[in-house]
Amino acid sequence: MALLELTNIAKHFGAIHALDGVSLSLEPGEVVGLMGDNGAGKSTLVKIIAGNFRPTHGTLKMEGKNLVMHRPIEARQHGIEIVYQDLALCDNLSAAANVFLGRELRRGIGPFQILDYPAMFRRAGELFGEIKSETRPRDLVKQMSGGQRQAVAIARTMLSEAKIVLMDEPTAAISVRQVAEVLNLIKHLRDQGIAVVLISHRMPDVFTVADRIIVMRRGHKVADKKVAMSSPEEVTGLITGAIETA
Fold first, then answer.
1. Predicted model pTM
2. Measured in Å, how far apart are the chain's first and last C-alpha atoms?
3. Do you know which SUPFAM superfamilies this protein is assigned to (predicted)?
4. Percentage, residues of the chain above pLDDT 70
C-alpha cells in the first residue's frame, strides 16, 4: 500500500489551470525528485500535499484512507511536514528553541509552569544525533551555516514524527560543502523510513539522492521514472519540452 496516493489532481485559479490530471504515489523511505521549470506546477502540487490548497478536482489518500485537508495544521497531524526555502527560522534563538518553536516543553503544576529548557536541549541533541548533524542545541541560528540551518529545520519536522517531508530547494544558495551536508540529511531521513519529496533545479543533487524523478511541465506530469532509468539529458529535454513525455 502506498504511503501517499494522488489521483487526477487538478487546481484551477479562475481561468488559470495550474495543475491538470496529476497522479502520483509515494512509498515509505522513498526520495522523489520533483523537477520542472518555473510555473510548471511543482509548488502548487506540494502546497496541495501540505494542506495549503484544496484541489479543484481529484483525490488524496494517505495509507489507503481518503485525505481531505483544509489547513496546513491538518497535514501536520497526518505526518506531512514541509521545509520551505527560507526555512522560517528565528535567527536570535538557539537551535533547540527553533526546533520546539510553538511546541515548547513545560514543567510545573497547573498555571505554575516554566519552560523546560534542559528537556528541550536534550531532545534536540538526540534529533541532531539521529540525522548525524554536528549542530549543537545551544548554538544560535544566526551563527550557523546553511547546512546547519537545514538540520534545524529538518529536526523540527522529526519532532512531530513526520512520515513525509516536503523540501523546497534545500540546496539553493549554499556552498558545495553545505550541499553535501543537506544531501546527507535527506539520506538519513530516507534511512529512517521517512518519504521525501525534493523540489530542486539542481540536477546533480536530484540524481545523487533521489530514487525516482517526477517532471512537471505546464501543469502536467510528463515523466515519472526511476533515476537509474533516466539521465540529466533526458530530464532537461522533458523540462524544456524538447522531449514530450517519458
1. 0.87
2. 25
3. P-loop containing nucleoside triphosphate hydrolases
4. 100
